[in-house]
Amino acid sequence: MIEQLAQSIVSAPEPIRTLLSWIFSEAFIKAAIFPGALFSTILGMFAVWYERKLLARVMLRVGPMHVGKVSGILQLIADAVKFLAKEPITPSSAIRPLFWVMPSAALLLSLLLFAFLPFGAGWIIYPSEIGLLLFFAVIAVSPIPILLAAYASGSKYPFIGLTRMALQLFGYEIPLFLALAGVVLMAGSFNLQEIVEAQARAPFVLPQFIGFVVFFTAALAETERVPFDIPTAEGEIVFGWQTEYSGAHFVVFQLAMYEKTLALCVLGSLLYLGGWHGPPLPFVPETISAPFWVVVKSLIVFTLMVLIRGAYPRLSIDRVLDIGWRYLIPLALLNLLITGAIVYFLGTLG
Amino acid sequence: MLYGIGSRSFHEPTYIEDGARSGAMTVESEVKEIIVLEGGEGLVFSYGPQHPGTGHFRMIVRVIGDTVIELDPDPGFVHRGEEKMCEYKTWITNIPHLERPAILDAAGMLYPYCLAVERLMGVEPPERAKYIRPLVAELNRIGSHFYYFALYGVFLGLTTPFLWCFGDREFVVDLVQFIGGQRITHSYLEPGGVRNDVPKKVPTELVQRFRAWYRDATGRSPKEGELSDDFPKYVLRVMDFMESRLENYKDLILENAIFIDRTRGVGVLTREMAAELGAVGVSLRASGFRRDVRVDEPYDAYPKFKFEVPVRTEGDSYARAWVAYEEMLQSVQIIRQAVEMMPEGPVKNKQHPINLRVPAGEAVARVEAAHGEMTYYVRSDAADRPYRVRIMTPSFRNLLLVPYLAKGRRIADIPVIYWSHNMWPVEWDR
Amino acid sequence: MAAPIEQLWFLWDPFVLYVILVLLAPDIFYLVSWLIAPRRPSRVKKTAFESGQAPIRSALGSFPVEYFPYVIIYVAYAVIAILIFVSLVAVAEAGVTPSLLLLLTLATIASFYASSQLKEIVGRRG
N or C: which end of chain C has fewer CB within 10 A? Predict the structure, then answer.
């Protein structure tokens, strides 16, 4: 059977053979299928479904049930179709080009994060010596489309959301960076693959628990999840910077926010939870078990985020700034100091 | 008066026809007419009615930066003309529409009307009705307070209490339905008693449903023989369940660190302000006044029940939530006592004809409804319909507090300050 | 297939191919939306959202000056962040040195002191 298939491929005419060789090439598989487009989209959709189901458990209800027979697994597609079938309205006060382009820009930046994340030895789209820095650079840029989108809406609630977001997101980038610095200090490298390899003996969450807490809190704030959903605070400012967005624009923005959240969850699993180091799975080759462990660990981080959403209300903006500037930064620096001391006196743990 | 609620007159709404493609008509309010907020610096915007953080009303808010400079509540979006309607309907047909302003608390809305008409007629309800009416009123109070906590959570960005409250409230509402025939607008109370007696047996489906929910909510099944379809036993069991669930609410809401951070010290209503501005309900009791009509001017069987009036002195949004929470516990106590002490006998003096005539005179009655002190003034000129019915709702009196409390606060505090007073837009619009 | 795939270099680089796919991703949504969504704009629909009311005055408001002290702090910490970044580059080459530990100690102590003082600078709750 396989031989026949291979035979037919070999005997296929030239253009089709090249096409097939392209489809089975490393470039296509990486970019389109595994760590790339298809996987990140499916992971995002799974995360939305998983969040709904888990939150439903917390809230004593059932969550999506009917669409797609099993546990409403296709509910998200139904929702997407519903949103896409709605009219995207552009307010007359909006700056049109900016208003239209910014959702795509936000999604581009969010999905770009996945290019720098390794899902196993070699499972990375863009291997780089400074992968972590590139990742952080994209994170640092990612509020800009959102700010411009809010500004382009030309409406009041988005404007209030804009000011809140400017204060929150830029305020939490420094703690995030300082938390990442601790990891770099311990691994001695900006290369994410090397950082994971350095955790072969023990995940970094053990020596850098404070760092993990700072990272996690900053990740919550960067992705605007409860209790840091202040820029989109429903019930206070309608939907904050997303108020004017409807239909396809809204779907794209929502997807962008989920992809950003997941990218940060994956980063958390790589930096602190030991990435693809895990007990070997029986009968499963290393190339498949490595991504499996990364995804499982990322979902553990995501589960924490969802449970927090089920248990805590929203903070107020002054408290958020207070936490960011008055608690997280000193804690991150303390973590850095402890890490430095450990590395200096005990050597790297890896 | 700083803020002229209702004193502002709007132009006749102008209807604008918009192009040939859309035949939609819409009302464009005349922005120029907002007198209080015209001029001055800062950002002015409407907060409501199409807003997840308000009910059916709007607030015009002026902010500078993140600080609220002025806030002007503008009720009237759901005005129904209940008072005028009373003059065109007979004494009995008034009952169904009078409970509409706060359907969550239908018994509380009807109660003072029934008491006032009874005073005009000079009748007393039979003993059994005197227990059934508080029973239904307290069930409605629990249901209404569940709603209060549900939306308190939503306004703060926490959806869990919303679904917990609605799940638990279902069994309170089911009890009301089972007693009065309808889930919310039961029209159960009437002058001179209640409409029908409490059924003896609870339907098996209801018991089964309760058993399933009990298992979901507590993680364990009720013991054998614990759930019976005998009415008093079933009510007592549901009340035990509510009490145990309220412990969970304490963890989720009142002892939640972020909830405390968001509500403590927010919207502080001092004792003096509460007295001057005429606060009622939880707002008054959270500001240090031990005032509850059920104790001060007891009606029906209330003097025979043992319960406490929870009071806090801080006067902030947290204290109001705390008072409402404690009230639910006290309501559970009252319901237990009402079920246990309920005597046998008729539930109404006689069946009223639809064109019942009430002797001429005027009467005032007030009760402690779920949202606060509810007062009715009823005047009769011996006709088959009232001459005048004046409804003084607690929500309207508490709405007056909002501008004073919101001034100088952050934008994020607006929904907290507004909702913590336990208000209901339809109730103040009547 | 006019252009042989081998000659299109960007199809053989995972990163470039990924960026191309990511650029296409939102367009799929917009295409579907363009196909199935109604387009009936009207003046009322296009007014800026303000809780269902006609907008009052212009949308551009004032920046919340209440939180201005934090902006100043941002500048201060940005310098520390750059300092730490530069020392991290050094760490990648030469490992942790006592001088780096000294720098971190100073930064930590300074930040703890600053956060204790900050409470008075930024008066909470107006």
Answer: N
Specify the amino acid at residue B424.
Answer: W
CB contact under 8 A, C21 and A155: no
**ipTM of the shown complex:** 0.85
| Collapsed DSSP state (helix, strand, coil) of residue B35 | coil
Interface list for chain B against chain A, based on CB atoms closer than 8 Å: 43, 45, 51-53, 63, 66, 153-160, 162-164, 167, 216-217, 252, 256-259, 261-262, 410-415
Q: Which residues of C touch A330 (CB under 8 A)?
A: 108, 111-112, 114-115
Kindly state whether C123 is in contact with chain B, defined as any CB-CB distance less than 8 angstroms.
Answer: no
Angle between helices A131-141 and A143-153 (to 10 degrees): 10
Domain segments of chain C: what residues?
8-38, 69-117
Please report the beta strands in B346-421, taking only residues with DSSP state E, as ranges in sequence order: 361-369, 372-380, 388-392
Evaluate whether B153 touches B253 at the Cβ level (below 8 Å). Answer: yes
The residue behind tokens 């199935």 is: C36
Structure tokens at B78: 């759901």
C26/A188 CB distance under 8 A: no
Q: pTM for the whole thing?
A: 0.86
B-contacting chains (≥3 CB pairs under 8 Å):
A, C
Q: Residue B65 has what DSSP assignment?
A: T
pLDDT digits (tens, 9 = 90+) for C9-45: 777 777 888 888 888 888 888 898 888 888 888 887 8
- In three-state secondary structure terms, C10 is helix
Q: Are B179 and B173 in contact (CB under 8 A)?
A: no
Own/partner long-range contacts of C24-30 (Cβ < 8 Å, ≥24 apart): C25/A37, C25/A41, C25/A107, C25/A111, C26/A103, C26/A104, C26/A107, C26/A108, C26/A252, C27/A104, C29/A80, C29/A84, C29/A248, C29/A251, C29/A252, C30/A104, C30/A248, C30/A252
Q: Do B52 and A235 touch (CB under 8 A)?
A: yes
